[in-house]
Amino acid sequence: MIRTGSQVLIGCLVTLAFADGALAYKQAAPTVRVTVSRFGHYYAKSVPQGSGGETRVYRVQAGQDQLWFTLSFVAYPDVDELVTDEPSVAPQPYITTGTGGGFYAKSVPELNGTAGVTRVYRTKAAEDLLIQTYPWYSPHLALDGWFAGNEVYVVRLGLDDSTVTDGEHTLVFHKNDKLLKSYSFSALSDLAKKISGTPGESIRIRAKQFRRPFGNQLIFDIDWIDGTDLAFNVETGEAVTPDEEALLEQLYNAKKQISKLQQAWHDQHDDRRHLITEDELRAINPEGFPELPHGYRYVPGLFWEPVVLEKD
């Protein structure tokens, strides 16, 4: 159901007023972006064109989406300020988007169950680019990716605010078209037991989200209503404990510091083919070489290659 003209205008003004600083930044570097309503049944595609552009609002359909209305400016709006989106009991086509709106997934059901298809698109000014297709429908998806590369991560969830039972596909991780790892109810319950020591007979989810704790590291979090938190490395789908995440951050910071030393060594020697040793890096700056996590060592490498820290 579309709101009245005055409600649409008010919604746009609220979006502009509360996001004035952010919009000023966006206008300096406008990008094509998709924003989605609360339940994913509507979305807005904002397309900059020179100093102007437009925002088109669509109703998601199983086939071609229905153009609902057009705004003659780029707004990156809160879609729920423009339309009334309501939850549905029966499976319906819907869209979910990743951070920044550069990617989105459209999941379309068949008559019942999880039969259907999910397609992932990269947002383009004209026709969006299809980059992944999955032979299933899921009412609960999470999506994220990198604008500069082709990596797109899709997390399929078989749980929400309702209770789930064993035997269901509860949590499934994909990177691009590759299945990384899936978890059953009992597997998640075992993970929760290791953290809190008190697994329940049923699991109710409170929140689910991607997180970038440092650098390019991408973590997917699940927060249970009972307070137990689970984190997963989306590169592998493996669960990550707080100690393991701290180790990943320590390795990241060490690699970042070593990379700066390698660049400084190259600036002095201008040799792209030399494998730079730890002693040579320490000679650049004796205090600059980081303390590595226990059991790890630096592998001599070229200054332009990623830093490798190897476990003994």
Number of helices: 5
Order of helices and strands: HHEEEEEEEEEEEEHEEEEHHEE
Q: Radius of gyration, Cα only, in angstroms? A: 23 Å
Shape, principal axes of CA atoms = globular
Which structural category do the helix and sheet elements fall into?
Answer: alpha+beta
Q: Poorly predicted ranges (pLDDT <50, ≥5 residues)?
A: 1-28, 160-167
Average pLDDT rating? 81
**End-to-end separation:** 62 Å
Helix content: 10-25%
Biggest β-sheet strands, sense, barrel: 4 strands, antiparallel
Query: How much beta, percentage-wise?
Result: 25-35%
Strand line-up in the sheet with most strands: 1-2-3-4
Tally of domains: 2
Structure characteristics:
5 helices, alpha+beta, 312 residues, disordered N terminus
What does this structure look like?
By secondary structure, the chain is of the alpha+beta class. The chain has two domains: 5-240, no CATH class; 244-311. 22% of the residues lie in helices and 32% in strands. The chain contains five helices and 18 strands. It has helices at residues 5-18, 20-28, 185-196, 242-269, 278-284; strands at 33-36, 42-49, 52-59, 66-71, 94-97, 103-109, 116-122, 129-134, 141-145, 152-157, 171-175, 178-183, 205-211, 219-224, 229-233, 239-240, 296-299, 308-311. The strands form five sheets. A four-stranded antiparallel sheet has the order 1-2-3-4, with no helix packed on it. A four-stranded antiparallel sheet has the order 5-6-7-8, with no helix packed on it. Strand 17 and strand 18 form a beta hairpin. Helix 4 (242-269) packs across helix 5. It is globular and about 65 Å long. The relative contact order is 0.07. Residues 1-28 and 160-167 have low confidence and may be disordered.
